Amino acid sequence: MSLLVIGSVAYDSVKTPFGVADDILGGSATYFSVSASYFTDVSLVAVVGEDFRKEDIEVFNNRNINIEGLEKRKGKTFRWKGEYGFDLNEAHTLDTQLNVFADFNPKLPEKYRDCEYVFLANIDPDLQREVLSQIKKPKLIACDTMNFWIERKFDSLKKTFEKVDIVIINEGELRELAGEPNLVKAAQKVLSWGPKRLIAKRGEYGALMFSDSTVFSAPAFPLESVFDPTGAGDSFAGGFMGYISNANNTDESAVRQAIIFGSAMASFNVEDFSLNRLKNLSYKEIEERFKEFKSLTHFDDLI
Amino acid sequence: MSLLVIGSVAYDSVKTPFGVADDILGGSATYFSVSASYFTDVSLVAVVGEDFRKEDIEVFNNRNINIEGLEKRKGKTFRWKGEYGFDLNEAHTLDTQLNVFADFNPKLPEKYRDCEYVFLANIDPDLQREVLSQIKKPKLIACDTMNFWIERKFDSLKKTFEKVDIVIINEGELRELAGEPNLVKAAQKVLSWGPKRLIAKRGEYGALMFSDSTVFSAPAFPLESVFDPTGAGDSFAGGFMGYISNANNTDESAVRQAIIFGSAMASFNVEDFSLNRLKNLSYKEIEERFKEFKSLTHFDDLI
After folding, report:
1. Residue A283 and residue B246: Cα distance in Å, rounded?
2. DSSP code of residue A124
């Protein structure tokens, strides 16, 4: 099945305790689409400026990502500058320049309107619904968001949530969104607004998925070197939605496996700056890591 | 097999966002022994003052805990006062009064010297080794510690670690102990000092167990109401060591199951102040929670 993502394609400048990199390829739709491309056909909707480099277009082409919906406009590509301390769970944003992203109003190419699986990455919730309205018959819709929209566009965000099946969100933002410090209660509150499932991303602690009757806990992969956590959440979402889209199955078992694939993709992504690790994987490596997640979490039943 | 614990028996004053309680029964050896008592025979070594209440002695008696080694001395029982914010992962110590604990120098009752499983709770590492030297043939020794000893008695602590099989420690203290922000590297460093296994406790994020060749990740149980986290780590250690002691087995499978039992006991403990929940459990409830941990973490293999 075909998977559509709308989000940002960006140039990031990132500082971690392990190094510095300027103007490197990033953005939620970038991480998502490259990650998902190992599982399924991906169509991307985003906007870049005239400064967008040819070699970065090749990153998408090499992964056979459909970029018919990647608009090129006068002006500069969206830029984000951030820093991480030794607590790699939290990014400190130093600068954001929306540039061409400021008045982005996406029109989906005709072919995109048949996509059945949709991921609305972290953008203005009005825009999330605008894109959604252009898709003919979405089968499964997931979305992300962030504190910026929770604080400024709460009502619009709630309207988006009424239309989506799965919310994928950081645990801190989930607590803020629900106004509730307890994660279980916060998840139940957001589920009461419409979504069937909610996935709380917990950085180096993994992810928790809630439905009205089940909870699933997945760890993050314990790595000896986490180089740059930028894009981990979107790589997670890409692996998750990519697997589901390919399986064309949303039962509990498939969705749990999808979370493990998402976690595997996030674990690869943090091993290097930008897409450096993510763009050069083999499916065999990904399956290997899936198996390592199994041995990481397995314990025997009682006799 | 018989399990010995040396640690504190205390009166705690605790404030959480959900309530306040003064002079309630607490202490590492208390939480540990009551938790372990659901699995095996427990012998306790600790000291209390003249103010120790009869009804609190009954807590141990009701769980058939051997308190021959609970010394009663002139003076007041050890007291700890602490507070938690909405981030229940971190206790803020407001006051510590060592009282009779200040010059505690335990002599083990003769019967205790045959114990094969030993838990050295968080006390002066000199004292940990002093107790250890009185045990004839320990089969498996585990210990805990805290930042206080890491900062003041690092060399002594390292000597204790050389003698123990399993270190059970908070993840923040593990990082401090190893001088290494990456948890995997920190664990490897501490394992190089002697212990065969290391368990990093991560509060509401569960636990990670490391050996030289394996890693096991266990989540914490997602609870709708965490009332008071005091004693969660010692309840965890009690369930863990209690199960191992009863199984008399330290292979990978048994130790992983023990971690789940430990996590189950910790999850019960945080549901109420003091030992209020922990002292009134049935083994059936504990097994039920073990099974809930299975459905919380299980995902199917790839076909």
Report:
1. 44
2. -
Q: Where are the alpha helices (DSSP H) in B37-107?
A: 54-62
A252 to chain B, any CB pair closer than 8 A? The answer is no
Report strand pairing: A10-16 vs A19-26.
Answer: antiparallel
Q: Quick one: which of A146, A169, A170, A189 has its CA closest to B224?
A: A189
Q: What tokens appear for B143 in the block?
A: 């210990």
Q: What is the ipTM of this complex?
A: 0.94
Q: Does A18 touch chain B (CB under 8 A)?
A: no
Q: Which of 83-112 (A) contact B at CB < 8 A?
A: 86-87
Of B182, B222, B301, the CB nearest to A183: B222
CA dihedral B281, B283, B286, B287 (to 10 degrees): -160
Tokens in use for B260? 């789940």
Going residue by residue through chain A, which has 303 residues, state the pLDDT in tens, using 9 for 90 and above: 699 999 999 999 999 888 899 999 999 999 999 999 999 999 999 999 999 999 999 999 999 999 999 999 999 999 999 998 877 777 889 999 999 998 899 989 999 999 999 999 999 999 999 999 999 999 999 999 999 999 999 999 999 999 999 999 999 999 999 999 999 999 999 999 999 999 999 999 999 999 999 999 999 999 998 889 999 999 999 999 999 999 999 999 999 999 999 999 999 999 999 999 999 999 999 999 999 999 999 999 998
* Nearest-CB residue to B299 (from A17, A257, A299): A257
**Chain B contact for A184, CB < 8 A?**
yes
3-state helix, strand, coil in chain B (%, to 5): 40, 25, 35
Question: What predicted TM-score, i.e. pTM, was given to this entire model?
Answer: 0.95
Query: How many Å lie between the alpha carbon of B77 and the closest alpha carbon of chain A?
Result: 34
Angstrom distance (rounded) from CA B226 to CA B204: 9
A225 closest CA partner among B182, B145, B285, B228: B182
The strand pair at A41-48 and A117-120 is best described as: unpaired
- Say how far apart CA B88 and CA B86 lie, in whole Å: 5
Distance from the A57 Cα atom to the nearest Cα atom in chain B, whole angstroms: 33
Query: How far apart are the C-alpha atoms of A201 and A18, rounded to whole Å?
Result: 23
Based on C-alpha coordinates, what's the Rg of chain A?
18
CA–CA gap between residue A56 and residue A281 (Å, rounded):
17
| B252 sits in which H/E element | helix B252-269
Burial class of residue B23 (count of CB atoms within 10 Å of its CB; 0-12, 13-18, 19+): middle
Which secondary-structure segment (H or E) carries B207?
strand B207-210
Q: Report the C-alpha gap between A91 and A197 in whole angstroms.
A: 26
Q: Which domains does chain B have, with CATH numbers?
A: 2-297 (3.40.1190.20)
Q: What residues form DSSP beta bridges with B83?
A: B15, B92
> Could you tell me the two tokens for A184?
């279980």
- Strands A10-16 and B10-16, sheet pairing: unpaired
| B250 Cα distance to chain centroid | 18
